[in-house]
Amino acid sequence: MNRGLVLRLESLAQLRGACRQLRALPCRKVWGAQWKPAQASAHPLCSVLLRPQLWQKHRLIGAAAAQCRHLATKEETKRKKKKIPLTRGEVEIRQKMTIEELARAMGKDVDHIYEALLYTDVDLGSLEPDSILYEDRIKMIVQKSGMKYKSAKLKEEKERKNTDAVKPPADPAVLTPRPPVVTILGHVDHGKTTLLDSLRKTQVASMEAGGITQHIGAFLVHMPSGEKITFLDTPGHAAFSAMRARGTNVTDIVILVVAAEDGVMEQTIESIQHAKNAGVPLILAINKCDKPEADPERVKKELLAHDVVCEEFGGDVQAVNISALKGENLMVLAEATVALAEILELKADATGLVEGTVIESRKDKGKGPLTTAIIQRGTLRKGCVLVAGKTWAKVRFMFDENGKTVDAAPPGIPVEIMGWKDVPSAGDEILEVESEQRAHEVIDWRTYVEQQEKLKKDVEVIEAKQKEHRREYKQQQQKLAHLTWRQRKAVLYKANKHLLFQRPKDRREMAEDTLSVIVKGDVDGSVEAILNILDSYDCEDECKLDIVHFGMGDISENDLSLAEAFNGVIYGFSVKANDSIKKLADKKGIKIKLHNIIYRLIDDLKEELSSRLPPAVVETTIGEASVLDTFSVTVGKNKIPVAGCRVHKGLLDRKMKFKLIRSGDVIWKGSLSSLKHHKDDAQVIKAGMDCGLSLDRNLEFSVGDDIICYEETEVQQTTSWDPGF
């Protein structure tokens, strides 16, 4: 019967379907010793198998197979579905289709798929209708069937209607004057916050960690003349470039603070560039003019190189010499700001739907997500429904910069908003919508757009990888073209066998030289600044840096769970970890590192990266000797080369390691087998003494060789990453 099976496969592939039906017969032992010819021959299908002269009569075979179809099991009957007719000879395929799904897509029987795979290296005996075929096999089957293929769309759906929030144009007839929004920019420690303190009569600078601003602060200042000015105090530290750029994008006027004794610095130049990119006019405030070393004229001349031309040099930039600490000339600076605002004719629509910009966002333990925002249009009141990014809010409370509740916020006024469902990102645009239902529609649309963009990028990456894989596969097949398929299979197995065993080991080794970090910050801008610094990490060959999670708020149990799972370190910036969290972290051996100054956090991170590096072996020279003569001694039947040396520096200690240098090249490293002074064994030979020595390896000496005695010590390496400050 086995011979009959082979003949069937080689002469008439259609019999495979009949054989599959035969397995469903009540007599399950038809292939074995219990097969009863009388019963089997009575069945039409068995009579065909037993009478080879009927094999060429396709109609009889088809009829016999047809009569057996009622013997199929219920499960097989359920799997049989209606074939999908083909359109234009194209088969719509996707990754990882089952045999049954591909057959339906091609409008063929399952047996057609088996036939297409008959003379390939696929093991047909292991295949079932629900077996998965990969893309390369699917394409090969379709092509062998004389058809074309096309990739199926990931999801067929109608074009979705854009339901995003829109900004209606403002009516010029309803525009009213508004307070100017002024951003204070400049280098770190040039006195920006002290200037704002003097204008507000507060002490913000004394409360800041390290004496440097690390958040954007929005404040409303009432001038003695009655005018109002909204000030944004931005960080001057190098790490907060994104915050400075965000400040200039929502501002009307930039006050550039430059210290009279320091002059133009790195962040000064960057601030000028931000103002130019935003098209915002500048006012120059030369601070610390009360110091003896102050030189305001030098500052003005240095700024000429950066296209900042003061009025006295024929330009349009007002320059005011001030002392923020002593309060000198501050009113002159305020008047210059008010005068420039009048020239700009700043107006806004105080009616209609609210528009604004998120300046900063954070999470408060009692109040939930909070945002500091500048209102640019409309009047914000309690109960307004707002959207920003992919979150929304129904305004519950509003606070001014002093934490007092306010009932309304007109254009140009900074306000802290409470009632957000989630924390929006700093820089997001705030738009008011008519209802909560409308807010959900906007958020759904924005989420959909983001998913589509991500999906498009993912497909591009996948296609690029598949193209590269196909190219490599083709090259590999060309190299093995002269072999039979069995030989190719054996060669490929031998080539890839080691990967199966090394993969878990590689994962362990990767974990050892990878630093996983969880970053938590008090506000969105701080987290953004830290992530921007981490993006500059370029020492992956030393130690990989993996950002597992980042967010706002105090350290939580979820952060500990992530750190435990990834063997990571938690870095907190201006956040807290309560006692229970600290105890749990100690119990699990998880490091929590809290900082209030950003450059100290980065220094701590660099130390942690350095601790993950393997120690470097440093050689310390103890002594040096020169070979003056060579000879050999006989020990048993062996001749051992001996060098007669003189120590001219340090000492030779037999317990230490030695190396032999010839013409500047190290030709041997190891230990000594003997060290003698005259005929006596010696442990140490000091400078100026002669000695004879032999190595632990039979190596011929040459006159003029150098013998170096050295000690190896392990030194902890430091990361070469330079974050730029």
If you had to describe this structure to a student in words, what would you say it looks like?
The protein is an alpha+beta fold. The chain folds into 5 domains: 62 residues, Orthogonal Bundle (Arc Repressor Mutant, subunit A); 166 residues, 3-Layer(aba) Sandwich (Rossmann fold); 132 residues, Translation factors (Elongation Factor Tu (Ef-tu), domain 3); 98 residues, Translation initiation factor IF- 2, domain 3 (Rossmann fold); 100 residues, Elongation Factor Tu (Ef-tu), domain 3 (Beta Barrel), CATH 2.40.30.10. Strands 25, 26, 27, 28, 29, 30, 31, 32 and 33 form a 9-stranded antiparallel beta sheet that branches. α2 runs parallel beside α5 and α12 runs parallel beside α13. The chain is flat. The termini are far apart. It is found in: Mitochondrion. It comes from Cephalopterus ornatus. Pfam families: EF-G_D2, GTP_EFTU, IF-2. Keywords: Coiled coil, GTP-binding, Initiation factor, Mitochondrion, Nucleotide-binding, Protein biosynthesis, Transit peptide.
Mean pLDDT: 77
Ranges where pLDDT stays below 50 over 5 or more residues in a row are 1-14, 22-88, 202-216, 236-241, 499-511
CATH superfamily of the largest domain, by name, is: P-loop containing nucleotide triphosphate hydrolases
Which architecture of the largest domain would the CATH scheme give at its second level? 3-Layer(aba) Sandwich
Our estimate of the beta-strand percent is 25-35%
Structural class: alpha+beta
Largest sheet: 9 strands, antiparallel
Helix content: 25-40%
CATH class of the largest domain: Alpha Beta
Tell how many strands the DSSP assignment holds: 33
Look up the CATH topology of the largest domain.
Answer: Rossmann fold
How far apart the termini lie comes to 82 Å
Domain module count: 5
Shape: flat
Radius of gyration: 40 Å
| Number of alpha- plus pi-helical segments | 21
